[in-house]
Design goal:
This protein has about 170 residues and is of the alpha/beta class. It contains six helices and six strands; from the N terminus they run βααββαβαβαβα. Strands 3-2-1-4-5-6 form a six-stranded parallel beta sheet, with helices on both faces. The radius of gyration is 15 Å and the shape is globular.
């Protein structure tokens, strides 16, 4: 059975603390956390992607994940310097080693890091989708970004993991 990996991209204080309502972060976190719990419970992977491109000594705390996203001890972590979380990181090998065949992309920013990571997963041969209602940006940007891309809802994910089809 191939596994599923949920990628939670750039859900960091630096990007989101001042924009929680504007980007509807709480709502997206509900979906991300629900799917992450479903996947963890059924032996799949959750990967938290952390952008460290702007890391400095004086902003280290700002690079932390927002508390609204649940990070568990067994979750995987990847630090990135580029918009595509696969580019010049260990992400591809990490999830291949876990037996992942399907990648679900969620997080911030819909038209940048989420989209570039989505494309990076496709380029590497993964079955790739975005998590419906789990993408963060302004509503207009989310609509534009997801309009012509493969989306998956949490009830479908629940069905897949219960049936053992993923």
């Amino acid at each position: 059975m191939e596994k599923i990996a949920l990628l939670v991209v750039d859900m960091q204080r630096l990007f989101l603390e001042d924009h929680m309502e504007k980007f509807e972060v709480a709502r997206a976190c509900e979906y991300i956390n629900h799917v992450a719990d479903q996947l963890r419970t059924n032996g799949h992977c959750v990967v938290h992607v952390q952008d460290v491109e702007d890391a400095r000594e004086d902003n280290a705390a700002q690079l932390d994940f927002i508390p609204e996203v649940h990070v568990e001890a067994n979750d995987l972590h990847v630090k990135k310097m580029h918009s595509n979380a696969f580019w010049q990181t260990e992400l591809e090998q990490m999830i291949r080693d876990q037996g992942v065949g399907m990648v679900i992309v969620s997080g911030f920013s819909a038209d940048q890091c989420v989209l570039f990571t989505y494309n990076g997963a496709i380029e590497r041969g993964f079955n790739t989708v975005m998590l419906e209602k789990g993408i963060v940006s302004t509503p207009e940007v989310v609509t534009m970004t997801t309009r012509d891309r493969h989306m998956i809802s949490y009830p479908v994910i629940e069905f897949m993991v219960r049936r053992g089809n993923a």
